[in-house]
TrEMBL record, chain B:
Keywords: Membrane, Transmembrane, Transmembrane helix. It is an enzyme of class 7 (translocase). It catalyses: a quinol + 2 Fe(III)-[cytochrome c](out) = a quinone + 2 Fe(II)-[cytochrome c](out) + 2 H(+)(out). The gene is qcrB. This is Cytochrome bc1 complex cytochrome b subunit. Signal peptide: none annotated. Its cofactor is heme. It comes from Streptomyces kronopolitis.
Automatic annotation (TrEMBL), chain C:
Pfam families: Cytochrom_C (PF00034), Cytochrome_CBB3 (PF13442). It comes from the Bacteria. It comes from Streptomyces kronopolitis. This is Cytochrome bc1 complex cytochrome c subunit. SUPFAM superfamilies: Cytochrome c.
Length: 354, 545, 269
């Protein structure tokens, strides 16, 4: 197959101008200069009249198929020979996996050459004469339609659907009810919401632990202009439900000069200017934490909601609908701790949030 | 149909082996009657007719590579500590889904390549569907009898988007996990049922342990299964309707001009599959995609800037990003419009393009079959609408990547967001007007060309010193091509009172329809194509100047 | 409408359109280019305090005041420490060239000795973080994996997964960390330049910082591996989508054009 492109239909090509035009397409230029002239006469390619040219095409096609075979061999060789962790520098791509590069290129070449060979074969050796096919209307002929309608009417009548209404109505009733079993079966997909969306693990007396160092935070750890992330004491990374808990408990701590805090309520929940806000965006719950220490703005990287941490976490830009929840914190025995749990649900809004 | 005594029966009554197998199959499957109408089926040649093929082949590539990936991927959210060969992840806690994705990338030979082919093919699949859809739209190929097939194609595009989303979420990396968290927010924003749906879909609180396995089922079974069905229906209809063709000499509404399936299209379409696969494999060798090892495993308290979905979801992302933060609180309930409105607009924008064929055929009152494609310039209103839709789409794509556009073009993120907010409403209108005018200009030029010939570029100096450019008359083929389109009269409402002087009742929809019809065929919206008389007068008279 | 169509063919029409387009582009750019809300930071102190003071008077005093007490154009440098000076001047951010949303990194115009003198002078104005020792930021004894996790918790939200940078509000941005000296990264964490928050030892321990720097060295250095091939800027799906459209679909359309093109005909004899 790959060695000899077949081309038996080349010699008996019809001569140019010999064939008829596809339809009425007249040359009635006198009456209508815009008339459809019909299909133009077929013109020959070099390959159709010159066996030399055809041979050249044949060799090109065969060469492409041979290159494909070589590339496949190359693929297998690369798979066997190149270690998976080998990194090579290829300009201008960079330091990349040698195996991935070699496998991809050989596979690409093997496939591409098959395609290129087939297409070149079709383009240069197979007949390129355009032919016209008739179209037929999709719509059925009137007599066909009449027959179908009659058949249907007869079938409907024989079923007695129309006459025996009780049978019909109870059947519809049964069919309408039976999918309910499927719906009921979905009930155990998950638990009821209960208060899960409203509660976090923060409550009075829970210490704030630094996410990075895993140490309880002291007020002096948090300088003006710094940013620190905290979790409730007792929550460890290898806990069973760490992800579910940190998804609600994550906290960011910043210190703002008390005179720069515009919101009185915020000030009263802060400790020496240290304020603790939920890290979970009130829009759709991304961990918002792009804190600009000079403007006290915090930006969400997902949808650019911007909150002002010096003004009660108010939304100043973007699609978030309400302020970031603040956690009331205080100091005890030199460590920061929650003075209370969150007073409102953290994270995105939901219908029952209120 | 199957007759045992075939014409080619050779001596001793034994047909060639291939024929005997075919006979056997025909006796059971009726393949000869199938082949009779299809083996030499004619397909017209045009590169833009192959965009759908690109989509089809990338879908096949996705299925082939996807099956391979399932052999190694563990759709589990059980947590493990990584000890594999990628050093910067060693000792990190992650789910098995993420761990197995790292293993596919670093410990399975060729796994990285297959992963990258799978993902690149997905991007190309959606891109090809989009461009294919635009080709069909702008050439009017969706007209009767192909409206249903247009809807099939549209559904494939929409399902493709969600298959893509569930697919790139599977590795449970920090980027896609952020996307899943977004979905949680969207579900929570549903009025009444939001918090219940969230609990049911995630099997408890976010992220839970169920969402990745559930996405896996949806991604590898449910959605591709539906898509496969739609795809087969789509292809059957393409065969059944026979392909549309561009206007030209010898091409009419009652024929299809091209080359036969066997052998030319077998070779071209079959070969094209290998070409598409080859190109995508080469891209997967050269360019990295979704390098989850650089992104890291998902943790709900971590995030990276530049958190975007794959491109086909980018337009929805844009809608969400540029939405102002509106929220309603009443009687203890909250409606999060910042999420809800974009999530409603998102399908509406898509549906606008999906129902367009039905609107157009209603406006035009056109019940005929159309197999000759329109040149976009000849239907300025449709072309204008299509461009306006694309502009709205791309403005939102910019909105979806506003942070990256801001940093890379040194713009302000906030101003860019405002630009998108306003541009989404203003730019499509401008695009509509501009496109229509360009179309009309092109129609004028066509008319000029028909009447005065082609500008030859040859400058001649007349005896009295004037310079003129010689115009060459067009041949009949071109004259036909430039004048074959139809220009129907707009729908008339008729007089407002009937012959008895009684006011006629016109329904609102009738008035709307007449108005819209004018926007297609009214005086300002079409350049009357040259008539035979005009042409004869100019050509027979003083000749070309 | 008629008028417009008639004038469209005027020889100068193209020029007018071009000028209009340029004006619109320029106008849009001016409208979107970040407004100037310059916030400079810090600079200089002493042993060679004297030398530093001289340098300070020439390069820094116009904005930060002759005594580093700050003016309306630049913040006070009292208490910012030597590390801040080393970072700001060492990365070329200071002295600032032009007002803008943010002072960008540029070529450093001072010698190391001069920077030390400036740092000494500024440190003399009030106590602050000093320039870190090499042992604090080299990769010896660092845990790359842990560094990655810390980076994703504390840094990636602004600087992207592998430190390619990202956007902040109103034209401000978190710069790319590519090619930034580990010392400067350490100093930036310690001092919080411009709008970056600081990460003092109470927030990120010294070991934490070391881990982060080691992680960055592994994923964002000159020798960093990108096993899959071109990293496309490490920006995620946006650049992947563009690449997919331009090179993926683009290449396939080019191939399709070849497949569907008419074969060259033999010359008519």
């Amino acid at each position: 197959m790959s060695e000899t492109g077949r081309h038996e239909d080349v010699p008996e090509e019809t001569l140019p101008g010999e064939r008829e035009t596809a339809h009425e397409g007249a040359v009635a230029t006198a009456e209508n200069p815009f008339a459809d002239p019909g299909l133009p006469p077929h013109e020959h390619r070099a390959q159709d009249i010159d066996e030399q040219a055809a041979k050249r095409s044949e060799r090109t096609v065969a060469l492409l198929f041979v290159v494909s075979m070589i590339a496949t061999v190359g693929f297998i060789a690369s798979y066997v020979a190149i270690p998976i962790d080998k990194i090579v520098y290829i300009w201008p791509i960079g330091h990349i996996s040698a195996l991935n590069f070699a496998l991809g290129l050989t596979l690409g070449a093997a496939l591409f050459c098959i395609g290129a060979g087939a297409v070149h074969w079709a383009r240069t050796l197979m007949s390129d004469e355009e032919v016209a096919d008739e179209r037929h209307p999709i719509e059925a002929a009137p007599e066909v339609k009449a027959k179908v309608m009659a058949d249907f009417a007869q079938g409907a009548k024989e079923s007695q659907m129309g006459r025996r209404k009780l049978v019909r109505n109870t059947m519809f009733g049964a069919l309408a009810l039976v999918p309910l079993s499927g719906v009921v079966l979905l009930r155990d997909l998950g638990p009821m919401p209960g208060t899960k969306l409203r509660t976090t693990n923060w409550k009075k007396g829970v210490r704030l632990v630094n996410q990075s160092t895993n140490l309880p935070l002291r007020p002096e750890d948090i300088a003006v202009g710094s940013l620190t992330f905290a979790k409730p004491e007792g929550l460890e990374e290898d806990d069973e439900e760490f992800a579910e808990k940190i998804a609600k408990d994550a906290l960011m701590l910043v210190r703002i000069q008390p005179q720069n805090i515009k919101d009185k309520h915020e000030l009263s929940w802060s400790h020496e200017g240290i304020v603790a806000y939920s890290k979970i965006c009130t829009h759709v719950g991304c961990p918002i934490s792009l804190y600009e220490q000079q403007t006290h703005h915090v930006l969400c990287p997902c949808h650019q909601s911007t909150f002002d941490l010096s003004d009660g976490g108010r939304v100043i830009f973007g699609p978030a609908g309400h302020a970031l929840p603040q956690l009331h914190i205080t100091e005890k025995d030199g460590f920061l701790e929650a003075a209370n749990g969150f007073e409102e649900p953290v994270g995105p809004s939901f219908w029952e949030r209120g | 149909m199957s007759n045992e005594t075939s014409a080619t029966t050779t001596r001793r009554g034994q047909a060639p082996r291939g024929e005997r197998i075919a006979d056997w199959a025909d006796g059971r499957l009726g393949i000869y009657s199938l082949a009779k109408s299809n083996m030499r089926k004619i397909f017209p040649d045009h590169w833009s007719f192959m965009l759908g093929e690109v989509a089809l082949y990338s879908f096949i590539i996705i299925i082939l590579t996807g099956v391979y990936l399932t052999l190694f991927f563990h759709p589990s959210m059980a947590e493990v500590t990584y000890h594999g060969s990628y050093v910067p992840m060693q000792g990190i806690r992650m789910t098995q889904a993420f761990e197995s994705t790292l293993n596919i990338s670093f410990d399975v030979r060729g796994g990285l390549l297959i992963r990258q082919i799978h993902h690149w093919a997905a991007l190309v699949f959606l891109a090809a569907m989009m461009v294919h859809m635009m080709r069909v739209f702008f050439t009017g190929a969706f007209r009767k009898p192909r409206e249903i097939n247009w809807l099939f194609g549209f559904l494939l595009f929409v399902l493709g988007m969600f298959t893509g989303f569930t697919g790139y979420s599977l590795p449970d990396d920090l980027l896609s996990g952020t996307g899943v968290r977004f979905i949680e927010g969207v579900i929570l924003a549903m009025p009444l049922v939001g918090s219940y749906l969230q609990m049911f879909i995630f099997g408890g609180e976010f992220p839970g342990h169920d969402i990745i396995p559930r996405f896996f089922t949806v991604h590898v079974l449910l959605l591709p299964g539906i898509m496969l069905g739609l795809l087969v229906a789509h292809l059957i209809l393409v065969f059944y309707h026979k392909h549309t063709q561009f206007p030209g000499a010898g091409k009419t509404n009652n024929n299809v001009v091209g080359m036969p399936l066997l052998p030319v299209y077998m070779a071209k379409a079959g070969g094209f599959f290998f070409l598409v696969f080859g190109v995508i494999a080469a891209i997967a060798a050269i360019a990295s995609i979704n390098p989850v090892w650089a992104i890291g495993p998902y943790r709900p308290d971590q995030v990276s800037t530049g958190a975007q979905p794959d491109w086909y979801m980018g337009f929805a992302e844009g809608l969400v990003r540029v939405m102002p933060g509106w929220e309603w609180n009443f009687w203890g309930h909250t409606v999060n419009f910042g999420v809800l409105i974009p999530i409603v607009i998102f399908p509406l924008v898509l549906v606008a393009i999906a129902v367009y064929p039905f609107v157009e055929s209603w406006v035009k009152g056109d019940k005929r079959e159309h197999h000759i494609l329109d040149r976009p310039r000849n239907v300025p209103t449709r072309t204008g609408f299509g461009v306006a839709w694309l502009v709205a789409y791309f403005v939102m794509l910019i909105g979806g990547g506003n942070d990256l556009w801001a940093t890379h073009f040194h713009l302000s993120l906030n101003s860019l967001t405002w630009f998108v907010r306003i541009g989404f409403f203003v730019l499509p209108v401008l695009a509509f007007i501009a496109t229509k005018r360009i179309c009309l200009g092109l129609q004028r030029r066509d008319k000029d060309k028909v009447l005065h010939g082609r500008e030859s570029g040859i400058i001649k100096r007349l005896p009295h010193g004037e310079f003129i450019e010689v115009h060459e008359p067009l041949d009949q083929e071109q004259l036909h091509f430039l004048t074959q389109h139809e220009q129907p009269e707009p729908l008339e409402l008729g007089p407002e009172v009937d012959e008895n002087g009684v006011e006629r009742k016109l329904s609102r929809s009738q008035k709307l329809r007449a108005k819209l019809s004018k926007s297609y065929y009214g005086e300002d919206n079409v350049i009357a194509k040259p008539t035979v008389e005009e042409y004869k007068e100019i050509t027979s008279g003083h000749g070309h100047h | 409408m008629k008028k417009l169509s008639a004038r469209r063919r005027h020889p100068l029409a193209a020029l007018v359109v071009l000028l209009l387009a340029l004006a619109v582009t320029g106008g849009l750019y001016a409208a979107f280019a970040p407004a100037d809300k310059a916030q400079a930071d810090d600079t200089a102190q002493s042993l060679a305090i004297k030398e530093g003071k001289k340098l300070f008077a020439v390069g820094c005093a116009s904005c930060h005041g002759t005594g580093g007490q700050g003016t309306s154009d630049g913040p006070s440098l009292v208490g910012v420490g030597a590390a801040a000076v080393d970072f700001q001047v060492g990365t070329g951010r200071m002295p600032a060239q032009q007002p803008g949303a943010q002072v960008p990194r540029k070529r450093n115009i001072y010698t190391n000795a001069q920077i030390d003198q400036l740092a000494a002078y500024v440190a003399s104005l009030g106590a602050g973080p000093s320039v870190p020792e090499k042992s604090q930021y080299n990769s010896e004894g660092a845990n790359i994996g842990k560094g990655g996790e810390l980076f994703r918790t504390n840094c990636a939200q602004c600087h992207n997964f592998t430190g390619k940078g990202g956007a902040l509000t109103n034209g401000k941005f978190a710069p790319t960390l590519e090619g930034v000296d580990p010392k400067h990264i350490y100093e930036a964490m310690e001092t919080g330049p411009q709008n970056m928050p600081s990460f003092g030892d109470g927030s990120l321990s010294q070991q934490n910082k070391k881990d982060i720097i080691a992680y960055l060295g592994a994923v964002n250095g000159d020798e960093s591996e990108s096993p899959g091939g071109l990293d496309l800027g490490g920006l995620g799906p946006v650049s992947e989508g563009l690449f997919g459209y331009i090179f993926g679909l683009g290449a396939l359309i080019a191939v399709a054009i070849w497949v569907a093109a008419r074969t060259t005909k033999a010359k008519k004899s």
